[in-house]
Every structure is written in structure tokens, then in C-alpha cells.
């Protein structure tokens, strides 16, 4: 069941409602993952929280066009790799622990430990727990496709600096990952309807 929408997508069923549902869910969960990371690392700017530093954008993003495109591809490929790795870990843990919920707890603890930083303990722990909850939701509620999209969108929204000043030369580049995430969400929403009109629920027939 974790692979249904993923195999349908690989099989060319791009308009399958389940594929759309998981694309939409993955985009929203990925944006949530990125938001958690940025909020946790922005806390020192709002509160007296020592030992926490903000996330810096990767250098290649603001360098040549080739580096920019390479970073886009790296974000997508990284999402696929980490998503497959998490699914493999879950199956591995599940094979060793017969109890389904115990396996989920173990995987959740593992994800939390992976995402723990070495700075402010309280902030990092809170962020790691939230990330683990979002990752488990993507994998267990929706499946592999949603998890891969979530990780990819998270990578997009964390690796690229978004400048609100149009005068900055990388202003347009910064919005490319945002547009990609929005496009995935909108496309997923549209095909998840299964051919029904977007505002069909407002019609008199309903």
C-alpha cells in the first residue's frame, strides 16, 4: 500500500487521483518540514535563545546557472534517495519488530535522532520531534510518493534563498523552488479530483 501511487506514477498514470492526492500531500508536508526548520533556526531573532544559528542557503544557488540547475536536480534526487531509504528502514524495522506500532515508535525515534542538531537542545529536540511526526505522516498515511515529494520540496525551500528585494540579482532564482512546490500542489489538487470540477461542490446539484 505504501507503493501504490508511486508505481502508478512510474507506470505513466499521471492523472490518477491517488497520485494527485499524494503529490498534494507531499508538497504540503514538505513545506511544513521546511517551515519547521526555518522557524526553529529563526527563534534567536525573536527570543533570547542562545546557541542557535539560522540556515544559510547553499553557495551554488547564487553562482552560475549550471550550479543553479545542478542544485535543483540535487534537491529532487536527494528527495528520492532519502524517501527510499526511509521506506527501507521501516521495512527493516518492521521485519525485526512484529508489532506495527512499536516499529513506528522505533522509526520515529530514529528520525528524531537523525534530525537532532548540536546547538540549543530544547529547540533542536522540538524541531526533530515535529519533523519525525511529519515524515511518519507522509510515509504511513500516504506512502512513498508523498514522502519523496515532501523531502524534495523541503530541499527546494531550504536550499534556495528567497529575496524580497527585486533589486537583488538572484531575486528571480529564489522563487523557482517556490513555484515548483506550488505547481506540484496545484497539479496534485487538480488531478486528485478525478475529473470533477474544482468548484463542483458549490453547484446546485450538490
Number of domains: 1
Instruction: Give helix % range.
Output: 55-70%
State the separation between the terminal residues, measured CA to CA: 32 Å
Spans where pLDDT lies below 50 across 5 or more residues: none
Structural class: mainly alpha
Q: How would you sum up the global shape?
A: globular
If you compute it from the alpha carbons, what radius of gyration comes out, rounded to the nearest whole angstrom? 19 Å
Give the tally of β-strands.
0
Query: Hey, roughly how much beta strand do the residues contain?
Result: under 5%
Mean pLDDT value: 85
Counting H and I runs of at least 4 residues, what is the number of helices? 8
Q: Helix-strand pattern, N to C?
A: HHHHHHHH
Largest sheet: none
Task: Report on the architecture of this protein.
With 206 residues, the chain is mostly helical. It has one domain. It is 70% helix and 0% strand. It contains eight helices and no strands. The radius of gyration is 19 Å and the shape is globular. The two termini are 32 Å apart. The relative contact order is 0.20.
